[in-house]
């Protein structure tokens, strides 16, 4: 689970610009820059536009008017890009990087994020300089919009970044769907299976083992051959945890998810203390302060 917390922290908490000489965007510049990209870039890489085969994710355009955004994050359909560039899904990221370079853009690959960053003209005019735009390839746009959702701070949708919602969701999923599959003669846990949230895949059942050559080890090893996809449908995630017919937007902020965990609709109330303890540990690992009233 730690590797996915690290990935989340790096992606969501804006670890800095990758494109040299990139300038931050004002909130007013986000929409106009995206529109320029829709008109001048997307058709050349096989995309129709926002709301069809791509979506703006993250906090750009959702901050207070006087705040800036270091980059604009856009989830894009890997399938569409692979088809347009005549390549396989495995090579789509690299071919996209080549295509953007051929169009004259400065780029940087982040293979671990399945992402290509490029320098786009701010407000569609190079006289304003360039800003960093991150194109994240996804195989499921609805999942990406759900898991990378950022609250709209212009309307006070939440007091907390999207990181808080996701770390609480990770703690909840991990605690509620945990099962010991093997014990030692002394009753110690030798192997277990659990559900985890993988940002680029969905909810995955994993199996881990503490067994080493000389007995049990401190850190469990992932047994990759047992990985099993449970779902990448946002509605399924909500249904796994809650009764009451709630929709995915009922858990799209930290406050909403926390309130549902305290409600009678939560299916695993006996797990709440464990969830909150794990959540605190995840916040500490991500170097985020505790929310008020935790």
Give the key terms.
294 residues, Beta Polymerase, domain 2, five-stranded antiparallel β-sheet, 12 strands
Q: Specify the CATH class of the largest domain.
A: Alpha Beta
Overall SS class: alpha+beta
CATH fold-level assignment of the largest domain: Beta Polymerase, domain 2
Strand neighbour order, sheet with most strands: 2-4-7-6-5
Q: If you average the pLDDT, what whole number results?
A: 92
CA distance, first residue to last residue: 22 Å
What does this 3D model show about the protein?
With 294 residues, this protein is an alpha+beta fold. It has two domains: 16-154, Beta Polymerase, domain 2 (2-Layer Sandwich), CATH 3.30.460.10; 162-285, no CATH class. The chain contains nine helices and twelve strands.
Task: Give the helix/strand layout.
Elements: H1 2-12, E1 25-26, H2 27-40, E2 54-57, E3 68-69, E4 71-77, H3 78-85, H4 92-102, E5 107-110, E6 115-121, E7 130-138, H5 141-147, H6 162-176, E8 178-183, E9 189-198, E10 202-212, E11 215-222, E12 228-231, H7 234-241, H8 254-261, H9 272-285
Helix pairs in contact: 1-6, 3-4, 6-8, 6-9
């Amino acid at each position: 689970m730690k590797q996915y917390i690290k990935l989340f922290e790096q992606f969501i908490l804006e670890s800095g610009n990758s494109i040299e000489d990139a300038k931050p965007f004002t909130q007013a510049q986000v929409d106009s820059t995206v529109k320029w990209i829709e008109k001048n870039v997307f058709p050349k890489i096989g995309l129709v536009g926002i709301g069809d085969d791509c979506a703006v994710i993250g906090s750009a355009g959702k901050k207070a008017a006087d705040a800036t955004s270091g980059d604009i994050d856009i989830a894009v359909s890997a399938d569409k890009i692979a088809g347009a560039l005549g390549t396989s899904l495995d090579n789509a990221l690299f071919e996209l990087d080549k295509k953007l370079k051929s169009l004259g853009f400065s780029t940087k690959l982040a293979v671990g994020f399945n992402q290509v960053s490029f320098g786009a003209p701010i407000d569609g005019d190079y006289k304003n300089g360039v800003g960093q735009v991150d194109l994240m390839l996804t195989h499921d746009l609805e999942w990406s919009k759900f898991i990378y959702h950022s609250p709209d701070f212009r309307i006070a949708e939440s007091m907390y970044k999207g990181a808080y919602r996701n770390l609480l969701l990770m703690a909840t999923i991990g605690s509620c769907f945990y099962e010991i599959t093997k014990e030692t003669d002394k009753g110690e846990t030798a192997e277990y299976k659990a559900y985890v949230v993988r940002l680029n895949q969905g909810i995955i059942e994993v199996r881990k083992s503490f067994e080493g050559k000389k007995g049990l080890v401190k850190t469990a090893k992932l047994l990759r051959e047992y990985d099993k996809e449970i779902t990448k449908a946002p509605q399924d995630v909500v249904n796994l945890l809650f009764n009451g017919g709630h929709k995915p937007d009922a858990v799209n902020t930290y406050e909403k998810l926390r309130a549902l965990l305290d409600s009678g609709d939560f299916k695993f109330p006996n797990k709440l203390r464990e969830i909150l303890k794990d959540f605190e540990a995840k916040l500490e690992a991500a170097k985020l302060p505790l929310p008020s009233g935790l």
